[in-house]
Design goal:
Layout (H helix, E strand, L loop, with lengths): L3 H14 L1 H20 L1 H16 L4 H30 L3 H20 L1
Helix pairs in contact: 2-3, 3-4
Length: 113
């Protein structure tokens, strides 16, 4: 049976070993919160830059590269999702219901095998 000091030291060791994981998890939770407050684009860019700086190198060249990638990925994802959902919302209701029924049927049939 372990004493309290042994369990506390093992918890401290776990936290020390997985410090980066806990920091990233905290950043992810903040990202989810800030999406609601300041929006998707700004939150995503900030999250990508901060996470990359914590995980990766911090030279001036790398910071410029990270920032560029964050902007391109975020804007690209935003434009893609707006384009996709715009064309999706133009479908009529009955075709959406038919597509959903087909999807549910496919899932139920594929689970049997």
């Amino acid at each position: 049976m372990k004493n309290k000091e042994g369990s506390q030291s093992s918890i401290k060791d776990i936290i020390r070993e997985h410090k980066l994981v806990f920091i990233t998890l905290g950043l992810l939770l903040l990202y989810i919160l800030f999406i609601q407050i300041i929006g998707f684009i700004i939150s995503s860019i900030i999250f990508m830059i901060v996470t990359a700086l914590i995980v990766g190198p911090r030279t001036k060249k790398d910071i410029i590269t990270i920032t560029s990638i964050a902007f391109v990925l975020t804007i690209g994802l935003y434009v893609f999702s707006k384009t996709y959902y715009k064309s999706d919302s133009q479908q009529d209701y009955s075709s959406k219901r038919r597509d959903m029924r087909c999807l549910i049927y496919y899932i139920s049939v594929s689970e049997k095998f």
